[in-house]
Design a protein that fits this description.
The chain has 10 helices and 4 strands. It is of the alpha+beta class. β3 and β4 form a beta hairpin. α3 runs antiparallel to α4, α6 packs antiparallel against α7 and α8 runs parallel beside α10. The longest helix has 24 residues. It is elongated and about 75 Å long. About 30% of the residues are buried.
C-alpha cells in the first residue's frame, strides 16, 4: 500500500474514533424523472452525506458519544445544464435515530455538481454541509438532555444559529420550519425534563443491578426496596410523570412526547411497576390509551 494511502486511511480511522455518529446508515429513493443512467449521481451524494456525519467531530467536548443515525433521501430531480453537466438536485431528507426521533426537511434545492465535496466549517454556511450540521447538533442536544438537565442547550443554540443563516438562503422556507422545530424542542422544558428523569431512574436501577450482580430487574432482590437506590429512582420516575402531566395540561397530545412514549412505553411500564409507581401507571393508561394493554397488564 502506498504511504499516502496508508496515511489517509489512518486519518479516517482516527477521525471516526472521535466522531459522534459511529453508526450511520443511509438509503435513498428517486422519482421517475431520474433516469437509470444517472443513478450514480445519487449513489455518490448519498455516500458523501453518510461519510460527512460519520467522519466529522461535531462536539470536541463530547467526543465519546456513540450515536446511531439513519439518513433517507428522496431525490425528485437532477437539474442538468447540458447533457453531461448538472448543477443542483431537488430532494427531501429524513434523518432518524431509529428510536424516538425522526425529522424531515422537504422541498430542498441543493447546489450539487461533479467533484463537489462536503467540508465541515462552522464559520461559513453551506447549503448541504450546514443542513447535516443542523441535524447533528439536534441529535447531540437531545442525547445530552438525557444526561443532565438542559445539558443540550449549547447544541440547540448551535442549530438555531445555523437556521438563522439558512433563512437567508435559497431554501429559506424550509430553514424557517427547521428554526421553528428547534425553538419548539428547546422551549418544551417539560419534555426535556421528562427524558432526563426517565433515564436517570433507569441509570440508578442499572447501577444497583451491576453492583449486586443481578442480571435483570425481574430478579431484583428484596434489599432494593429499602435502599437509597429505590428511593432515588422512584423519585426520578415520579418527576417523569409530573412532567408528562404538565405536557398534557399545556399541549395535550404533543407529537414529540408521543414519539418518545411510543418507543419507550414497555420500558416505562416495567420500571414503573418495579418502583410501585401505580398512580403513574394509571395516568399512562389514560394518556397512552392506544397501548393501554401494556400498562394494564403490568398494573394488574
Amino acid at each position: 500500500m502506498a504511504k499516502k494511502q496508508f496515511i489517509i486511511i489512518c486519518l479516517i480511522q482516527l477521525t471516526a474514533l472521535f466522531s459522534q455518529f459511529n453508526n450511520v446508515t443511509s438509503s435513498y429513493e428517486h422519482s421517475n424523472l431520474i433516469k437509470d443512467e444517472h443513478k450514480y449521481i445519487l449513489d455518490i451524494f448519498n455516500e458523501k452525506a453518510k461519510n460527512y456525519l460519520e467522519f466529522n467531530t461535531f462536539s470536541n467536548e463530547y467526543d465519546f458519544l456513540d450515536l446511531s443515525i439513519h439518513i433517507n433521501i428522496i431525490f425528485h430531480k437532477i437539474n442538468f445544464t447540458t447533457d453531461n453537466n448538472f448543477n443542483s438536485i431537488n430532494c427531501q431528507i429524513l434523518l432518524s435515530n431509529n428510536k424516538d426521533q425522526y425529522y424531515i426537511t422537504k422541498n430542498l434545492t441543493l447546489p450539487y455538481y461533479k467533484e463537489r465535496d462536503l467540508f465541515f466549517n462552522t464559520m461559513q454556511f453551506d447549503p448541504i454541509a450546514s443542513l447535516f450540521d443542523f441535524y447533528a447538533y439536534l441529535f447531540i442536544a437531545n442525547e445530552l438532555d438525557t444526561w443532565g438537565l438542559y445539558l443540550g442547550e449549547k447544541y440547540y443554540n448551535k442549530a438555531i444559529e445555523i437556521s438563522n443563516a439558512g433563512v437567508e438562503s435559497r431554501n429559506s422556507d424550509q430553514w424557517g420550519k427547521n428554526k421553528k422545530l428547534i425553538e419548539l424542542l428547546k422551549e418544551n422544558n417539560y419534555l426535556r425534563n421528562l427524558k432526563f428523569y426517565f433515564f436517570k431512574s433507569m441509570d440508578i436501577i442499572t447501577a444497583y443491578l451491576n453492583k449486586n450482580n443481578i442480571s435483570d430487574i425481574s430478579f431484583m432482590d428484596e434489599k432494593f426496596y429499602t435502599s437509597e437506590n429505590f428511593r432515588d429512582s422512584k423519585n426520578a420516575i415520579n418527576l417523569f410523570v409530573e412532567n408528562l402531566k404538565s405536557i398534557y395540561d399545556k399541549y395535550g397530545y404533543e407529537k414529540y412526547t408521543i414519539k418518545f412514549i411510543d418507543y419507550y412505553n414497555l420500558e416505562i411500564a416495567k420500571y414503573m411497576k418495579l418502583l410501585n409507581a401505580n398512580k403513574g401507571l394509571e395516568f399512562l393508561i389514560k394518556f397512552d390509551y392506544k397501548n393501554e394493554y401494556i400498562y394494564q397488564n403490568l398494573n394488574d
